[in-house]
Amino acid sequence: MFAPRTPPRPLVALFTAGYLAPYLLPTIVGRLDSGLPLSATQSGAVGSALLLSSAAAGFLWASRVERIGPRVLARAGLALAVLGYGAAALTGLVPVIVVGAVLGGFGSGTVTTVAATGIAAQRDPHRTTTLGLLSVSALAGAAYLTVPHLGSGHGLPLGAVALTALVVWPLTGSLPGRTASAHAHLSTARLPHLRAGVVLAAAMVCWSLVQNSLWGVSGRIGLTQAGLGEATVGVVFAVALGAGLLGVLAAGALGTRLGRAVPVGGGTVLIAGCVVLSASATDLSGFASGEIAWNTFYPVVLSYLIGLAATLDPRGRWAVLIGSASSLGTAAGPLVGSVLAASAGFTGMGLVLAAGLLVVAVPMTGVALFAGRLPQSAEQVPAGQVPVVDIPFAEHADSGPTTLADIPVVEFPVDAQAVPAQGEYGTAAAATMPGAAGT
Fold first, then answer.
1. Are 6 and 176 in contact (CB under 8 A)?
2. How far apart are CA 403 and CA 396, in angstroms?
3. 3-class state of residue 282 by DSSP
4. Which DSSP category does 179 fall into?
């Protein structure tokens, strides 16, 4: 895992760069449809390919971040994002755009994997997740306000994602290098809480599919069913993402005082109602109300789900795997939404998606209740008490819980020689986020 004092700023930046493409998916898909010889379904398929590639990266790198090194892997992902999205933005050739979107999606997924692994190792994963959601929501909102006024064409939103990856690159210098030598034995440890993790991963596939099915066609709902212009739709999306910022701030302030079951279960039920409202909108008021309400509740529930995944394994493996499972649902969203809208209309699509959300709310709430009964982590133990921890090494497998005083000191070889003297010491760095709404 990441060193305990890894500052959250680079993790928040990586989170932002990795999630920006899904947040901008409506305008990416909409501009592919309007500016290229592609049908709505074909444009949705391109968006799905981008997100599927992102999910594949998560599954590939989930258990390899430590061995390769967070810094190396993050830089590789950012480079792929710049190359892929940049190439797709600068050409009008459909095959090149498809290949660039897939390559960029793989880069986004790689970056998100590094961010998720690092966030799980933080003292407060929910707080860092909240910061990440705030950052990506603010950036996406700014994009929705400015892109419609900068010109037409598919290149602008794709170029914005590529530029963001380029800007984030310098922040990777504070990430740790290879940590596999220090955690060689831990890398073979089994995933804890296997049943809960699998249930949450399966539920997240469906949850994210529903979110992104609507998000992927939201632009078309506003343009065709509600009869709005692109600039107006962009303003609605920006305001909706701004409302999402308020929701994330509220979630950060609330923390886990209510546990995670109430925000996850109750929030998903509220999102189901928002999906129906947005999908059935026929004018500006209905469309704006549905999108704003939906984007207010979606990031709140998402922040708790990411935090829930992190509690199942502090090393971040479940956070990455469940995030990748979520990306699978997100990837299928644009295509599923387009097919449902074509066969049942936008309103019928909304009813089907809402029913699906109500079904998956049950197992997700069950996992949240289970996680609430897990032993407290070290940072939750009151001061002055010695926490009880489980030692993952094989020789302690049958010895049960062990206090910190019983933990043996393990020395690891260091490649470089120690510095003989140090004149001054600075202060230690503080250690401390879409369907996306589909976003």
1. yes
2. 12
3. coil
4. -
Q: For residue 240, with 0-12 CB atoms within 10 Å meaning exposed, 13-18 middle and 19 or more buried, which class applies? A: buried
pLDDT by residue (tens digit) across 276-333? 999 999 999 999 999 999 988 988 888 888 888 878 877 777 877 887 788 788 778 8
Asked if pLDDT for residue 436 goes beyond 70, the answer is: no
Q: Please say whether the beta carbons of 175 and 74 come within 8 A.
A: yes
Q: What is the rounded distance in angstroms from the CA atom of residue 73 to the CA atom of residue 68? A: 7
Strands (E), 219-335: none
Q: Rounded to an integer, what distance in angstroms lies between the CA atom of residue 309 and that of residue 330? A: 17
Tens of pLDDT, residue by residue over 85-94, are: 999 999 889 9
Angle formed by the axes of helices 317-372 and 194-220, nearest 10°: 110
String of b and e for 289-305 (b: at least 16 CB within 10 Å)? bbbbbbbbbbbbbbbbb
Long-range (24+ apart) CB contacts under 8 A made by 422-429 are 428/5, 429/5, 429/7
Tokens of 359: 């079904």
Nearest to 84 by CA among 34, 171, 169, 159: 159
- Closest by CA to 320, choosing from 309, 328, 305, 329, is 309
Instruction: Please tell me the distance from the alpha carbon of residue 131 to that of residue 245, in angstroms, as a whole number.
Output: 10
* Distance, CA of 36 to CA of 47 (rounded, Å): 14
Query: What 3-state class would DSSP assign to 1?
Result: coil
CA-to-CA separations, 199 to 61, 97, 254, 361, in angstroms, rounded: 21, 36, 26, 12
pTM for the whole thing? 0.69
Cα–Cα distance list, 417 to 69, 78, 411, 414, 421 (Å): 21, 32, 15, 7, 12
